[in-house]
Amino acid sequence: xxxxxxxxxxxxxxxxxxxxxxxxxxxxxxxxxxxxxxxxxxxxxxxxxxxxxxxxxxxxxxxxxxxxxxxxxxxxxxxxxxxxxxxxxxxxxxxxxxxxxxxxxxx
Amino acid sequence: xxxxxxxxxxxxxxxxxxxxxxxxxxxxxxxxxxxxxxxxxxxxxxxxxxxxxxxxxxxxxxxxxxxxxxxxxxxxxxxxxxxxxxxxxxxxxxxxxxxxxxxxxxxxxxxxxxxxxxxxxxxxxxxxxxxxxxxxxxxxxxxxxxxxxxxxxxxxxxxxxxxxxxxxxxxxxx
Lengths: 107, 174
Known about the structure:
- The complex is a heterodimer.
- Chain A is mainly alpha-helical.
- Chain A is 65% helix and 0% strand.
- By secondary structure, chain B is mainly α.
- In chain B, strands 1-2 form a two-stranded antiparallel ribbon.
- In chain B, helix 3 crosses helix 4 and helix 7 crosses helix 8 (152-169).
- The termini of chain B are far apart.
- The relative contact order of chain B is 0.12.
- Classes of the chains: A mainly alpha, B mainly alpha.
- The A-B interface holds A 15, 24, 27-28, 31, 34, 37-38, 42-43, 46-59, 62-63, 65-67, 69-71, 73-74 and B 16-17, 20-21, 24-25, 28-29, 32-33, 38, 42, 45-46, 49-50, 53, 92, 94-96, 98, 101, 103-104, 106, 108, 112-113, 116-117, 120, 131-132, 135-136, 153, 156-157, 160-161, 163-164, 166-167, 170, 173.
């Protein structure tokens, strides 16, 4: 760790290519020096976005598949909610019959 | 065409199909960057979009709808990764071979792509998500910090370090 900030030249060298662990540790903790190396434009000339987009691209048919699957999942959840409601009816009835309506039983 | 956001703001039942159509692609890319497995990314994307649709009536609009959906997707994928700890180290499971795929003027060389994948795989999952949110989805540092729930300074330093490492992997590209 530096007691003061690394020189701009040293920061620029690290940003370009030079392996300098002391600078790296410093930059990770110092926003002032990070701002300086960010202006070095590391990787700006490289097609990072294009390569990432190609790597992470989905099959063309996925959009329709997801629409279909989401609708099926929604319908299934809706059915389960209805089923859950039906199962709850006898339970609620029983609860009413035995008078368990939240009375504390103190009296 | 009425968007999901517009539908939600109008207080009507939001349209699930429209939400999926508007947001599936960026959601899939961020999830895929996190989990590196196409089949799993598909499942998580579906789950995240369904979660977002169910939570949409509570969406307050203090972030953009896109960022809000991406945050839900990020959280869902991170939960899945945590349940599978340690993260599998196998190579990326891609939907199909993408070597030689022409994207704009760039023909992607298979070797370069392998180096790129290796460099990306060596990064923490959350850093991969940060890189994609910035380089592909064009989110600002502040938006990324909000989506991944990390301090702004952490986002900036991780992104800078990642760009540096990926630049090495792409060194031979010209």
